[in-house]
Amino acid sequence: MTAALDEESDRVALRLAIDAAGVGAFVWDLVSGRLRWDERLLELFGLDESSFGGTIEAFNACVHPDDLARVTAAAGLAIATCGDYVAEYRVVRPEGGVRWIEARGRAFAETEGGPAVRLVGAAYDTTEVHEGEARIGRVLESMSSAFYQLDAEWRFTYVNSEAERLLGAGRAHLVGRSVWEEFPAAIGSEFEVNYRSAVATGRPVSFEAYYPPPLDGWYEVRAWPSPEGLAVYFVDISDRREAQDALSRSADRLALLASVSEGLTGTLDPTEGVSLLATLLVPSLADWCLVTLVDDPHATDWRRGLTDAGWAHADPAMHETVEQYASLRLRAMTDESYLARAIRDMTTVLMESGATDKVAAVLREGAARDRLRELDPESAVAVPLRARGRTVGVVTAFRGGNRRAFTADDASLLEDIGVRAGLALDNARLYEEQRDVAEALQRSMLTDPPQTPHLEVVTRYSPASDAARIGGDWYDAFLQQNRGPGNNDVVVVVGDVVGHDVEAAAAMGQVRGLLRGIAVHSGYSPAAVLSGVDHVMESLRLETTATAVVARLEHHPRPGAAAGEEVVLRWAHAGHPPAMLVGPDGVVTRLADVEDNDLLLGLDPETKRAERAAFLEPGSTLLFYTDGLVERRGRDVGQGIKALEELLRELEPGTADLEVLCDRLLAQMIGDQPEDDVALLVVRWNPETVA
């Protein structure tokens, strides 16, 4: 009794479950042809016992015509193999409505190995599922983004219309095929790496990647893993990337132009400028380049005055080869060379390909051509550097075959660079000419000191190494008639006119001439000479100021029976760094302090000039200098004067040769790169020396 109740309970429970799921059952007797449906299945088809014919033909009449062949084939296969029956199809209900039905069953035989005699199964309504999928499909089809679904085997299961357009293939072709087989360039790329990472970790990924031709585009991709596989959304961002690349190229172009302008305006040395230009262009714009200076673009022989003054190569191993080529190529070029065209026609020459052969064709056979073939350029561009209506140089840039060839845009960028470089180089040329004139003018006025018994005078002039090279620094030494019984006195002067240019050098010449003329004609002492210069400068309206120190070494016979003489030193300062006196015992004394270092020359002609005097002991050394010796960045004048004192204590006692002493002072105080020009004058009185 209990077993019967349990069996009945199980049947009731199963029936309730089937009813709850909306599942209907069917039995098709293959022998009699009778097809029996339960009430639930009749309800799904919109039929009842009286309206359903109970045959397979009645069933076929309910199936949507587009699905009938597929359903019939599935049933036939199950019957022929006594296997499973699976089919999903649409049915057309009597009122015209369409429902989706999914059916599953199995064919049975009465004897093992015999033919199937019945097909038993169940069916249920999947309309809502299909309607949901249809809604999703409509959403996916209406999206502006491309979408496709991959299964666990990386096969396409769905492709929307935008994906069809971007992938260049229809869904009928793609569905069921492997993404790796259809798009082999994705293997090993960002696509495969990210797709497999998403599936392995279960986390979505987002990335940008390029796919080569035939797609030839950049894509922004988002991929979400799911139990069914991988859902992929992607959009073509090629236009955006091109815009970004264009913006980046524009920024790089502006940065390069700015660096060229900044670099070239920071130097007034043409040779340094072309060398810097070469290093600025490599490797950002070229693999290697040469910069040629043109002295006279209108010369009968276009090679005259040309100098390959700058070169650079991105590969350090090729530096020597480029240098050798630069030293050889100008002499090897024919009149048909690209360089001759760039200079003669003042136009850019662009070689987009085959540059090695094209350049070699205008080189005579020899070492230059050999070096060129070692460098092996594939593309090249030569741009004249023009300024003020003349060609001042040519920059020639080269790229190898492993780099994108030069284009018209690259040539345009080089032309922009050429405008800036040409003006900067011409400014440097003009400055160099002006500097040479000023230096020649200045040196012409720095005359040799007079030769007098027992008095040694040594001078030095060191120009600055930068743009402030030429200034108003000067030294002078001359004889002044002694009104007493002794020999002529020696006057020494060191001064500095404010400014650093040709005007400063010219003003220095005027002040120097005034001071020398007043001193020699009047015989005045140092303070009176400085006052006289003040008055004359005001009378002549010289719009300049200057510092100066004037000292007079007066020779007097020594009183008494013993032969010989003594020297009195008189001096006066006009705003100038203090002169130094090194006694025979090595003690260093400053010859000026705040109280007796008066105003600069040219400020106030009524100022009272202080003068000091002292006996000069035999073997004493005097040092006069301009502020360039003691002042520099990071060291003010006061610190520099103290350093000079210490250096004199160290060097002077053991340095008998004044020439050596001057050289050592300059080397240790200013080094190889003086920041300002320096005038230096050193005097030693040694009565023991032979005249």
TrEMBL record:
Q: Which SMART domains match?
A: GAF (SM00065), PAS (SM00091), PP2C_SIG (SM00331)
Q: Which GO terms describe its molecular function?
A: phosphatase activity
Q: What is this protein called?
A: PAS domain S-box protein
Q: Which organism is it from?
A: Nocardioides glacieisoli
Keywords of the record, alphabetical order, are: Hydrolase
Q: Which residues form the PAS domain?
A: 132-183
Return the InterPro entries for the record: Bact_Sigma-Reg (IPR052016), GAF (IPR003018), GAF-like_dom_sf (IPR029016), PAS (IPR000014), PAS-assoc_C (IPR000700), PAS-like_dom_sf (IPR035965), PAS_4 (IPR013656), PAS_fold_3 (IPR013655)
The record places domain PAC at 85-138
Establish whether keyword Hydrolase is in the entry: yes
